[in-house]
UniProtKB/TrEMBL annotation:
This is Superfamily I DNA and RNA helicases. Pfam families: PDDEXK_1 (PF12705). One of its GO terms (molecular function) is helicase activity. It comes from Richelia intracellularis HH01. Residues 22-254 form the PD-(D/E)XK endonuclease-like domain. InterPro entries: PDDEXK-like_dom_sf, PDDEXK_AddAB-type. GO terms for biological process: DNA repair. Gene3D superfamilies: 3.90.320.10. Keywords: ATP-binding, DNA damage, DNA repair, Helicase, Hydrolase, Nucleotide-binding.
Amino acid sequence: MLLNSQSILINKMPPTSKTFLHLSQGQLKLFEKCPRQFQYTYLEQLYSPNNQEHEELQNLGSSFHLLMHQQEIGLPVSSFLQADDQLQRWMSNVIEIAPEIVHPNVCGETSRYSEHSRMLQVDDYLLTVIYDLLIVQKNKAQIIDWKTYPKPPNKIYLGQNWQTLLYLYVLVETSHYLPEDICMTYYFVQYLGKPKSINFSYSQTQHKKTEEKLKQLLDKLSECLIKYSQGDMFAQVPEGVKVCKHCQYSTRCRRVAFPQERTIFPGSNAETMISEDYTNLPSIISIEEVTL
């Protein structure tokens, strides 16, 4: 018997009469890295086209996530596997490293949610997360995230990444689980040709630290938005920092030479070329609608 998902996972949704800014982990990460880049990407919707190789890798990663979603909800996946040798290898790697995830022996107290979205209101922001797979039992829950790039980051760095911080934080804040009841596991399905997993436990101390860090970042964003509405630009990072070397807005910021960015028109095909980490910000363009 499946658990009642409504009693376990309750989105803390705000009243519908107010406009909120939707923020994902990728947007928090970008704003923390460079406020000016956040401004250009989301407020002014500028971008530089991806190179073909990068776009192909993104498409392949998206195909793998769709494959795992269909596998989870019981739809046929043979056409995916037959069409692409890479997807076959990655699926084999997942079965090798986590057979219980792909072919679970689900007991009556376990529920599984694929591509599961959660929202949490914090002040004038809606924090949004999408779990590739969420496995819940009465007294514990596990977040699963699939990664298709070949080299995982250092575990310490990954643990400080906003995806790890926000995914764990939001689950605690939108459920009955204590921080010690949950964990998050990344599966890197092509790490040097072999799969690798990185697991994170959680604690009340970590939860409190994330809450404080999140508040500081959102307060800073609110200040930037107020100043932006008054005609000021978001702050730039100091000159000479590494982040500017590979930024698509280096020319615009007068830092280093880089191909000129182009404007996105909402609803156009070009809009899909933004990295998946930096999507899902539908209302941030309309600054005048936000009460700060």
